[in-house]
């Protein structure tokens, strides 16, 4: 097996750190691309990207905070230009399933002239234990809009395994994979599964998007984060086409995707959902 030099942008994040682990396990030379890494990679400092790209054969790209936000398209265009100059041979882009703005960024990668794979993922399971849904779960009351929408939550373990195959094997070049979990669940069903796995009482409260946004404003959440959350709840969850299950994970990994129950039982065993919230 040829050992390669691989830059993993977002290499300490939800998918990136798992990809770094899997690639290192197979002996590849991995460089983490993040603000805390050396050399540092910051999406807001394009003048410094060449240091992180230097000597890399392949790059896994996760953009922060989301490919749908203003400025993402220009950043991806610039990254692709710099990757070309650095003679990078393959790009694997993590994209959001059902995000029209993200598809514009995908097009930049697709037309880069560099080999590529696009990995479009639906909502991560891990939003409930590593992201903005952890706090409400710990509070025991989860109030969310789009209560009736059925969501094909996907596990970041599966995304990472697919991405690693895409990075290492040329047979995935030119593919757009759409990754979903094996079932459609409402938020209420997801919360009930977490409550059951962690042996806790957690109440789900359906609210409107306006009420949710107002709650974030009252809690002084920054406006650009509120914009992104509104976008994800309206454009992505509000689009019925996104309530579908695909079999791309099974096609690539030759096994079934991880179910939400398996995810919830694994996370519950770590105790994270039974820990007390820190009070300031
Ligand atoms: N969450 C979902 O449900 C979901 C679904 C589909 C697609 N996605 C896509 O997945 C991607 C990752 O989203 P996520 O929320 O799961 O985050 P994440 O991967 O957990 O992101 C954190 C990573 O990004 C790095 N980072 C943060 N700000 C950065 C900056 N300005 N420049 C460079 N690196 C930075 C962090 O390291 P440092 O702090 O050291 O910089 C860390 O490595 C996004 O593009 C999102 O659209 C997410």
From TrEMBL:
Ranges for domain NAD(P)-binding: 10-169
Gene3D superfamilies given in the database record: NAD(P)-binding Rossmann-like Domain (3.40.50.720), UDP-galactose 4-epimerase, domain 1 (3.90.25.10)
InterPro entries per record: Ergot_Alk_Oxidoreductase, NAD(P)-bd_dom, NAD(P)-bd_dom_sf
Domain of life of the organism encoding this protein: Bacteria
Protein name: NmrA family transcriptional regulator
């Amino acid at each position: 097996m040829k050992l390669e030099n691989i830059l993993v942008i977002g290499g300490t994040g939800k998918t990136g750190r798992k990809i770094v682990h899997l690639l290192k396990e197979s002996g590849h030379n991995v460089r983490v691309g993040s603000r805390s890494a050396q050399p540092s990679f910051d999406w807001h400092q394009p003048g410094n990207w060449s240091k992180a790209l230097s000597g890399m054969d392949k790059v896994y790209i996760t953009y922060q905070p989301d490919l749908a936000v203003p400025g993402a398209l220009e950043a991806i265009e610039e990254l692709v230009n710099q990757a070309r100059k650095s003679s990078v041979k393959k790009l694997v882009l993590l994209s959001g399933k059902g995000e029209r703005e993200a598809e514009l960024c995908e097009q930049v990668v697709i037309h880069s002239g560099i080999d590529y794979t696009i990995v479009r993922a639906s909502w991560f399971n891990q939003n409930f234990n590593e992201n903005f849904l952890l706090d409400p779960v710990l509070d025991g009351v989860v109030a969310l809009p789009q209560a009736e929408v059925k969501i094909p939550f996907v596990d970041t373990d599966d995304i990472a395994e697919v991405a690693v195959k895409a990075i290492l094997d040329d047979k995935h070049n030119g593919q757009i994979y759409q990754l979903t979990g094996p079932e459609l669940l409402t938020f209420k069903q997801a919360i009930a599964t977490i409550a059951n796995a962690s042996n806790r009482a957690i109440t789900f409260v359906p609210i409107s998007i306006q009420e949710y946004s107002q709650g974030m404003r009252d809690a002084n959440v920054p406006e650009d984060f509120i914009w992104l959350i509104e976008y994800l709840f309206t454009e992505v969850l509000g689009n019925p086409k996104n309530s579908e299950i695909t079999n791309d994970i099974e096609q690539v990994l030759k096994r079934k995707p991880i179910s939400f129950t398996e995810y919830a039982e694994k996370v519950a065993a770590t105790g994270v959902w039974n820990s007390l919230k820190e009070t300031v």
